Amino acid sequence: MIEVKPGVGAPTMGGVINAVLLDIDDTLVDTRGAFRHALMEVAAEYLDAGADPELVLAHWRDDRGGWYRAHTRGELTHREQRMRRANDLHAAFGGPSMDDAAYDVWDEGFERHFRAGWLAFDDAAELLDELDARGVPYGAVSNADSAYQVLKLSSVGLQRVPMLVGVDTFGVGKPDPRVFLEGCRLLAVEPGVTAYVGDEPDIDAGGARDAGLTGVWLDRPGTRRAGHHEAAEGTLRIESLADLTALMG
Ligand SMILES: [Mg+2]
Prior knowledge:
The chain is α/β, with parallel strands linked by helices and about 250 residues long. The chain has helices spanning about 30-45, 55-60, 65-70, 80-95, 100-115, 120-135, 145-155, 165-170, 175-185, 200-210, 240-249; strands at about 1-5, 15, 20, 140, 165, 195-200, 215-220, 235-240. The protein has 2 domains: about 1-30 and about 120-249, HAD superfamily/HAD-like (Rossmann fold, 3-Layer(aba) Sandwich), CATH 3.40.50; about 30-115.
């Protein structure tokens, strides 16, 4: 049994945590860095020579068309959302409009460079060591495909994290409460004593809170997406996974 102490922006939070559910992308794995790696290759091949790498990366991650979110609502396939995002990116930075055949070639290169960039954050294994030492059960709940995430976790050395729920489990993702509750069910723990940690304050921390878990926003310095300015009410905010351990007392 571990006491949760109030975190930044959530002075009234309190309770007990004895299980942890984890987001994968930009929480355990530096997906932003991998996208940067892939997008630099794309920029060199397809975009205006003067395209600012930071703006290209921000454009991709912000997904202002909301295509990835539509995918997690079950409205678009993974391919459909990524092709729309690729064409949006090209429209913004001088690349050609792509039909299906052109996109297939684009995506082969993008995916290869994206995978080559996968790397775990240094604090990920340290957190898992700590949870293992304390006997706190944990697992992943992600808005990507389960098999793909198993491959990703394995390739960054985090195969000990059980992949519990993906966007394929119910055909929808966070913030739908079902995915958080299914994670708890699979760990055989109650939502009220479970924390969910993710890098998005709304769909991760806010969604977990709405499902009855303790929602924790991992706000890594310098990595915010557009629109992510503050912790949702009734959630906690931390700046590294090491802070989660401190939060747990
Ligand atoms: Mg994430």
